[in-house]
TrEMBL record:
NCBIfam families: PRK06638.1-4 (NF005164). InterPro entries: NADH_UbQ/plastoQ_OxRdtase_su6 (IPR001457), Nuo/plastoQ_OxRdtase_6_NuoJ (IPR042106). Keywords: Cell membrane, Membrane, NAD, Quinone, Transmembrane, Transmembrane helix, Ubiquinone. It comes from the Bacteria. This is NADH-quinone oxidoreductase subunit J. Its EC number is 7.1.1.-. It is a multi-pass membrane protein. Composed of 13 different subunits. Subunits NuoA, H, J, K, L, M, N constitute the membrane sector of the complex.
Length: 217
């Protein structure tokens, strides 16, 4: 076994262990940190497969941006673990059934009969002048352009749905009405002029009032 294959098995084992820790940790912050570890080891696997662009994007985009933001959100939400685990026993049979069905589907599809070396032989190592970023772009925007656009539309619908589900009116929060801002006029709608004495005239008046009150007492 060569050194490259040894690294592959090491990073693959780390990925599986970290993925298992994500769904078994009680603390959500620990689960997010294990997910970051799973992403980093997955990026190492991509680099070993000569897909450097995907590995770098996985680290920069997911680990460096998405997961850091997700970690801060989880830390600020103060998730009640007891409430989340209140219905664990009740939904355990359904979850176990879904897990068994998914495992059977994976075992039926993934295997030497469908993903062996006869169906997918080892690719020829690319030369130093070959850019996998260019090759990925050519495939993504020519052969797989329709699935790419469909995935973009699905993500857009998910974003709109998430905003709609979390958007609710709070009586103690002030909101801006864009229609009123457009209809505003430059006169009384913008400023209100109040006449008041200047500071130099107001100070002696206040002092005189205080002196009169003391003399009265």
């Amino acid at each position: 076994m060569g050194f490259e294959k040894f690294l592959f098995y090491v990073f693959a084992a780390i990925t599986l262990i970290a993925a298992g820790m994500v769904i078994t940790r009680r603390n959500p912050v620990h689960a997010v940190l294990y997910l970051v570890l799973a992403f980093i080891s997955s990026a190492a696997l991509w680099i070993l497969l000569e897909a450097e662009f995907l590995g770098i994007v996985l680290i920069l985009v997911y680990v460096g941006a998405v997961m850091v933001l997700f970690l801060f959100v989880v830390m600020m939400l103060d998730v009640d673990i007891a409430t989340l685990r209140a219905g664990f026993i009740r939904y355990l049979p359904i979850g176990a059934l879904i897990a068994v069905v998914l495992a059977l589907e994976i075992f039926l599809i993934v295997g030497p009969a469908n993903f062996g070396l006869q169906q997918f032989p080892s690719p020829v190592p690319a030369g130093p002048d070959v850019s996998n970023t260019e090759e990925l772009g050519l495939l993504l925007y020519t052969l797989y352009v329709y699935p790419f656009e469909i995935a973009a539309v699905i993500l857009l619908v998910a974003i709109v749905a998430a905003i709609r589900l979390t958007l609710r009116r709070r009586p103690d929060t002030k909101y801006m009405d864009p229609a009123k801002q457009v209809r505003v006029k430059k006169g009384p709608d913008r400023i209100r002029i109040v006449k008041m004495p200047s500071e130099s005239a107001a100070v002696p008046a206040v002092a005189a009032s205080a002196a009169t009150q003391e003399s009265t007492e």
